Inverse folding.
């Protein structure tokens, strides 16, 4: 029976590439989006040209009711969820002392609370089936911290903490939980970086290049096929951060 995967934030960037990569591996994709409806429709149409049918579902996964509806749709249609990729995320650059309670809510809810609620919504089914794979897309900044990105760093460190603790709790149910912590990846999230800044970052990276969404999608593909890796934070970063 084919595997069923929910990918949050799959309209653009890394999530979109993960959707494409897994769809070509005969995995049924439920691609979540929030604001980028046109991009989500384009993704669906692009894959249809290769005879691959995916579901695109609008939901703000930082909100419990919308996350719940998304998972209920999938469980009603496919009766199970094998794979959950918690990818939806936003960045924010601000001096720490300028951060507001609203900023905290927006960043932490989008990047961390979303993974908490999405995991809670899919887990009863995974535990029942004694099978599952959850991948949280965190960041190198959760590992080493980024100046002017304290809230982002907190959210990503929180994701990694969740990964480790949940992996211990869910191992006996044969559910693997891992984080992928990307380094700099060429997506809209980094659209503000100038050419000079990108060149400088390349120089600081041992492999001498910026990552692509495909680099992350390949790691996701491998983690799904694996059976003995859990509770790990796998950083795909060209050697930029080595801990
Ligand atoms: P991106 O190109 O800006 O895409 C972000 C995606 O997240 C979009 O599809 C967006 O959907 C979705 N999203 C945001 N808020 C959402 C919400 N409330 N509900 C549902 N979807 C939501 O960013 P990206 O670079 O692909 O980032 C993907 C993940 O990788 C993020 O978690 C990010 O923190 C992480 N990451 C990225 C990098 C990097 O260098 N790019 C490095 C480390 C980690 P809509 O547009 O439809 O709203």
């Amino acid at each position: 029976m084919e595997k069923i995967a929910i990918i949050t934030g799959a309209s653009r960037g890394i999530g979109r590439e993960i959707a494409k990569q897994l769809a070509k591996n005969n995995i049924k994709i439920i691609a979540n989006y929030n604001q980028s409806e046109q991009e989500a429709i384009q993704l669906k149409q692009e894959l249809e040209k290769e005879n691959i049918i995916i579901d695109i579902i609008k939901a703000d996964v930082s909100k419990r009711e919308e996350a719940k509806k998304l998972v209920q749709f999938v469980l009603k249609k496919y009766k199970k969820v094998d794979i959950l990729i918690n990818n939806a995320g936003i960045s924010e650059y601000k001096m720490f002392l300028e951060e507001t309670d609203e900023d905290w809510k927006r960043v932490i809810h989008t990047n961390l609370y979303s993974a908490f609620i999405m995991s809670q919504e899919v887990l009863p089914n995974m535990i029942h089936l004694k099978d599952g794979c959850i991948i949280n897309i965190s960041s190198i900044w959760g590992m080493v911290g980024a100046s002017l990105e304290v809230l982002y760093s907190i959210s990503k460190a929180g994701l990694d903490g969740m990964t480790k603790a949940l992996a211990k709790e869910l191992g006996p149910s044969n559910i693997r939980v891992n984080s992928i912590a990307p380094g700099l990846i060429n997506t809209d999230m980094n659209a503000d970086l100038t050419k000079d800044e990108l060149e400088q970052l390349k120089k600081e990276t041992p492999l001498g290049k910026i990552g692509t969404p495909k680099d992350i999608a390949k790691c996701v593909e491998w983690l799904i096929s694996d059976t003995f890796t859990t509770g790990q934070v796998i950083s795909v970063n060209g050697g930029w951060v080595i801990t």
Remarks:
- The mean pLDDT is 98.
- The chain has one domain: 3-234.
- The two ends are 40 Å apart (CA to CA).
